[in-house]
Amino acid sequence: MTVPKTVPWAAPLATAPVRATVTVPGSKSITNRALLLAALSERGGTLTGALRSRDSRLMIDALRALGVPVDDSGDQVVVTAHDGLHGPARVDCGLAGTVMRFVPPAAAIADGDVHFDGDPRARERPMSTVLDALRALGADIDGDALPFTLHGKGGLPGGSVTIDASASSQFVSGLLLAGARYEAGVTVLHDGKPVPSLPHIDMTVRMLREAGVTVDDSEPNTWRVEPGPIAARDWIVEPDLSNATPFLAAAAVTGGSVTVPGWPENTTQPGEFFAEIATRMGCRVTRDAAGLTVHGPGQLQGIDVDLHDVGELTPTVAALAVLAHSPSVLRGIAHLRGHETDRLAALVTEITALGGGATETEDGLEIRPMPLRAGLWHAYSDHRMATAGAIVGLAVPGVEVDDIATTSKTLPDFPAMWAAMLEEERR
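and the corresponding structure tokens:
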């Protein structure tokens, strides 16, 4: 069977400073955690403002495969009461890290076999850390990466486990989310290089506590979840702040202003850090009742920044750095080599193909602004690589993105949102 090639998307060129208000859909990270917690409560729950995208669809389908009733036909997503998780089941993880790393720890309490698989690139992503941890906690699993089969026994002893989570914070979060349903709860100890994306673990801990679960994170690199019920509750999903950053970056690149309504006052989302990054690159950032607004400068300045805790922002920051007027160094992001694609290698390849200067370091990137030319920007089936190409295309005529449809992973209709933002600028 021949797979049809997608038609390259011509990235729109900004002809004037972008001035727009962009409403961003709900957070993928919060949506998929809330869905899983609602399923594990067995009494259900509702989500208001939930993201509707490929990643959230994969999570809903995974839960349905395990016998959880989920109704997403209305404005809210409703998980209703059920009698527990069960197999036999087949779970398609796609390329969603939150599905491949969060669902197996939950499926470990299912009754019956659960088979997991995903996209070709998903089979290359690290999984042995969480699978070995589940084995140590009492699970029976065939395989060390996708595809694998978990032989559910209707429960899991749980207990204490030591892992190296330096490749992904999702290994910790996945175990914590299901830990309250293990007979002895779970204690996760991290032993290795610093855990990346710690705000995502903070998000997990916060949501567990909101669901009535007792979590002790008072010791560094140690998280203890007590066994007990998970409360049914109504979740209000914040806008996805990481998905907001490409639109805010449009203001930075063009010297315009973009407002994202509903920006939370207090949040554990990594996207919150973008306000500081934009400020350090010369932007002015304001917060008021309308939301968060980035006002772009006359010239973007380069930045030397550690993105270890907010690695998902790297493609957006790299796109800004390419268009800045001084060099940039992005540090602490070696773990991005194991994301949807090797993001460091991909960014270097695409930036240099357009004439820019970029090199990999041991833990990040060095970017040297140089005159850019038209060309094809490859997305590598990675939604954040695709949006980075769109940002560059605002300032460089003739940039095309080979697979803009991959943005549907977390943004249902990015091209239309991007066009609407630019149309607002022209009014």
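(Above: one complete record from the training split.) The chain has a mean pLDDT of 96.
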